Amino acid sequence: MDNPFLKEYTSDKTDEELVKRAQNGDKKSLENLILKHQPYIYNIAWKMVRNPSDAEDLTQEATIKIITNLASFKMNSSFRTWAYRIVANHFLMSKRRPNESIFESFDKMAQGLEMTPDHPLTDMEQEENKAFIKEMNYSCMSGMLLCLTREQRLVYILGEMFNADHTLGSEILNISKDNFRQRLSRSRKDLFNFMNEKCGLVNKSNPCRCHKKVTFALDNKIIDSKNLLFNKSEYAKFRSEIKGDADEMMDIVEDKYSALYGQLPYKKDFDKKTFLEDIVNDDHIKNLMNLN
Questions:
Q1: How big is the CA angle at 91 (ends 93 and 202), to the nearest 5 degrees?
Q2: 8 pLDDT above the threshold of 60
Q3: What is the phi-psi region of residue 164: left when phi exceeds 0, alpha when psi lies from -120 to 50, beta otherwise?
Q4: Could you tell me the pTM of the whole model?
């Protein structure tokens, strides 16, 4: 399959060309190399930890590790495999973030949903609050991802949301293809089983509906009406950004369930222009890479 991590970048140079030039001190090539992969690193981080600020920190930390180790990269594998293995290891080994304690198990999330009072909205009210209801939907689904273990979460994000097949996924995580398939299968089943039992979007017999929870979420500042985290017009969707060419999903996973995660937001642009500049202009990085 085509590599879903190499789609529509601004640079016309290959990774190998950019790496060689960066290793020889070309600052612009280093910038282009990082810009080429940064959106994917950030969006993996965002889905891993849910909080955009934490995701920026993780992205910057992982990027620094890639740059500081770039001089030792010997081209024995693709840059993609080498770099994303660093990213995956960093995400798995980094300190736990506050959100990971809030949504640490499906049982805990189920209890939270049951304790959240329902405030059903009329059809007109649902139309008026459509953006907030969608935010509630995205927020809840992001919380479900955090109910998986970190390892399951990363496998699911790579294999299901980014459509990495077992060859690419196993290369990044440095595990066997069979192991990757098994872990992905388990992650899919765990998420599907919870959604099939609790989520009204997947199983209409379930009483939980986003529009019933949104009033409580707004009143208690769980959703900030003036600063939505997920449902912004400038965000794309995973399904439109990531090429769909994954292995055939297991029969137990319904198309609708898969489509829901394909609709989660994908952030293409970054708020801070200095995000990359802070890294490549750091004295330690400049000296290490002999940048000019």
A1: 120
A2: no
A3: beta
A4: 0.82
